Known about the structure:
This protein has helices at residues 13-25, 36-45, 62-72, 87-96, 108-138, 149-162, 178-187, 209-214, 231-234, 250-262, 288-293, 299-305, 322-337, 346-354, 360-374, 387-398, 403-421, 426-433, 437-447; strands at residues 5-9, 29-33, 50-54, 77-83, 100-104, 168-171, 196-200, 239-243, 264-266, 273-275, 279-284, 308-311, 343-344, 379-380. By secondary structure, the protein is an alpha/beta fold. It has a five-stranded parallel sheet with strand order 2-1-3-4-5, sandwiched between helices. It has a five-stranded parallel sheet with strand order 7-8-11-6-12. It is extended, with a radius of gyration of 31 Å. The protein starts with a strand and ends in a 6-residue tail after the last helix.
Amino acid sequence: MAKGAILIVEDDAVQRRLVRQTLEGEGYQVAEAATVKETLEALAAAPVEVAVVDFKLDGETGLDVIDALRERNPLVTPIMVTAFGNLENAVEAMRRGAYDYVTKPIEFPRFLEVIERARERWKLKTEIDLLHSSLEETFSAKNFVYASARMQAVARLIRKAASSDATVLLSGETGTGKDLVARTVHFSSKRKAGPFLAVNLPSLPESLVESELFGAEKGAYTGALERKTGRFEAAAGGTLYLDEIGDLPTHIQVKLLRVLQDGEFYRLGSSRPLRADVRIIAATHRDLPVLLKEEKFRSDLYYRLNVIRIETPPLRERREDIPPLVDHFIRKYREREGKPIEGVSREAMEVLMAYAFPGNVRELENVIERAVVFAEGDLIGTADLPVFLEDKSEAAAVEGSSLPDQVRSLEIREIKRALAANGGVQSRAARSLGVSERILGYKIKTYGIKPGS
């Protein structure tokens, strides 16, 4: 079995044959080309991992080939072959995207080592590309789950934001899905091929926020033993997500404002300005207008961030989103757990719909994940839900109701618990409740309690 697919781009037939024989002798699958046109034809004909490109071609250069490779298939890893003494050609080739270079006459032991390293680079790039494609599919707008009019409005804003490069400010309670909105905007935008980097600002010590965002030169602070690349540099061509922007220290707010106004920033310890081609999405659960009044957040920075404002409403204000979200999370976790769960029982859905979910969508996901783990049939029942969920749901349902209704709700809850704890056996459930089996049977029939509910 061939070790890998190598393309030789060389207009000298003798040299091309020598390289081919060497590579085939090592077990590689080899294709040949002499021009840019033949290179593109070879790429279309079969997969290629590494391209060995001679710098000097008839009427063209290896740089033309590298440019064509990057445009047609950027995963292919080029290696430049250049005459000894023309190292400036090799430097230019590496600047244009070549992984490494070898000089003529070729020293084949080193050449084969470079080939293997280039193949490792190809494997890494391929894995990253697959991961990126998976993320793009996961966070595409079509996977944004909702049914409510409130979230329809959010989805419209996401589409508007994705078609723009403007700064986005996300607001909403913890757990409402601000992170999901940010990723959906990025992976639906023209920047989706670039990086998406998230920074949780409260998790950083205040003394390190500046270097984390903007980078630092060697020796800029105690412990800075080498140059540090900041998130703005690392996110070039993509999106930088600043989570909990309301916690950004005031002295860093000034520097962030400069980036938003001029597109420039400075590494800590450097006087040389750097430019950032980065789209900013900021998020907060705090009330920024209140912080403005308290002079804890700069008004000029707020207005720069608040170009496109998207507010994610709490789950208690969009309860019609609960059923589709439940279905979504069941599909997600039943595959992981290998269980044939189709949905939830009517009673379990009533409990979920009645609960306030102070932790919002994040809490709902945790509840469904737990329920999938506990469920033994093809439906999630109330016994699979956390007890506190049913308690609070019932408490909310009977609040302000008559005493008989409250007694009825209490009896139904305790009967269900007893049946669940005793495997549905009514005689044992009756003993645990301290009533006769006849009375328990009467209550079950009166309240319409179904076995296993």
